[in-house]
Amino acid sequence: MDESTFELLKAIIPSAITAVVAIIALITSAYSSHKATKTSYSNNIDNMRFTQKEKISDQIIEKASVLLTKTDPNYLNTIINEITPIEISKSEFTSIQKQLLSITDEIQTLSTNIKLLTYSIKDSNSEKLIYKIYEELDLVHSEIQDMILQLIQLYCALTPNGNIKNITVMPEKYKLEKSFSEKYPKIYTDLSVDIILLVETLKKNSIPQSKA
To answer: Model confidence over 132-174: pLDDT tens digits?
Structure first.
């Protein structure tokens, strides 16, 4: 190596080392920044997910509280007890029938809303409980619907020419009240307990682990 080449290398090497160090520092900085951004994004996604779950839990509480009020056994028994052995007109019957059917319609709507809310969560920890609640919601609606239809039949028997089955209204009313009171309260209680359990689980899982 001649002297001019050696002097040239002496001049280039420090600059080259500085450039390499700068590049390494730039790459390290970019990697750290990317990692921090990725972590921040992940945390934001988690927080959004937890916040969404919290909001849905609140909506479930709201809908479920209305549903459980509308399907309360004591409330439904008062509806059965309202029937008296007094003849009613066809227009009165039509009005009563409409009111009674609106109860089952409202229960069906509330049940559907609760199902949609729980389905949107897609929480694996609560999946079995959610499907159990679906079955209980259907069972509650079915039992109330059967009771309402029987009650409508009794009201129909109070209209002129409406008692085509020769129903004796009051004994049938007492029979309906007894059968409903014996079977329905447990179904209602099971649903109530499971909804409370679901909400508690969702509330617990809505807290990020880093903040738990």
So the answer is: 999 999 999 999 999 999 999 999 999 998 888 888 999 999 9
| Residue 91 CB neighbour total at 10 angstroms | 9
* H helix runs in the chain, sequence order: 3-70, 73-81, 90-121, 127-157, 169-205
Cβ atoms of 155 and 98 within 8 Å: the answer is no
For 60, which DSSP code?
H
Q: How far apart are CA 164 and CA 150, in angstroms?
A: 14
CA distance 21 to 41: 30
Contact present, 137 and 114 (Cβ < 8 Å) = yes
Whole-Å CA distances, 178 to 68, 131, 186: 21, 30, 14
The H or E element that residue 86 is part of is: none
Give just the sign of the alpha carbon dihedral 77, 82, 86, 87.
Answer: negative
State both tokens at 62.
């709201």
Which residues touch 139 (CB under 8 Å, ≥6 apart)? 187, 191
pTM, to two decimals: 0.72
Contact 101, 67 (CB under 8 A): no
